[in-house]
TrEMBL record:
Keywords: Membrane, Transmembrane, Transmembrane helix. The keyword Transmembrane helix applies. Its main location: membrane. Residues 15-74 form the CGL160/ATPI domain. It is a multi-pass membrane protein. This is CGL160/ATPI domain-containing protein. The keyword Transferase does not apply. InterPro entries: CGL160/ATPI_dom. The chain crosses the membrane at residues 23-42, 48-65. It is found in: Membrane. Pfam families: CGL160_C.
């Protein structure tokens, strides 16, 4: 069977993937709603402009995820790896 720490690692990884997907969905969902709002309230040009902003935000998130996923333990500063000492 899987060790407790391995189970927790797998669970946290799944949760991490779920959070990433949720953020992307929120970005697209809210972005789409605001784009429609811009088109209706302002103009088609404003809507298109806003949609480009949303698209770049989504792209940025993707690149950020790729970067974060490729980080290894060696990239993490020593200070973050130390066990916290309770005072």
């Amino acid at each position: 069977g899987l060790k407790e720490s391995d189970k927790r690692k797998e669970f946290n990884l799944l949760r991490y993937e779920a959070i990433k997907d949720e953020l992307l969905l929120l970005t697209v969902g809210i972005g789409a709603a605001c784009t429609i709002y811009c088109v209706l309230v302002f103009s088609l040009e404003a809507g298109i402009s806003y949609a480009f902003g949303v698209a770049f935000s989504w792209l940025y998130l993707q690149l950020l995820y790729r970067h974060a996923d490729n980080l290894s333990k060696e990239d993490v500063p020593e200070v973050f790896l130390k066990k916290k000492v309770k005072k």
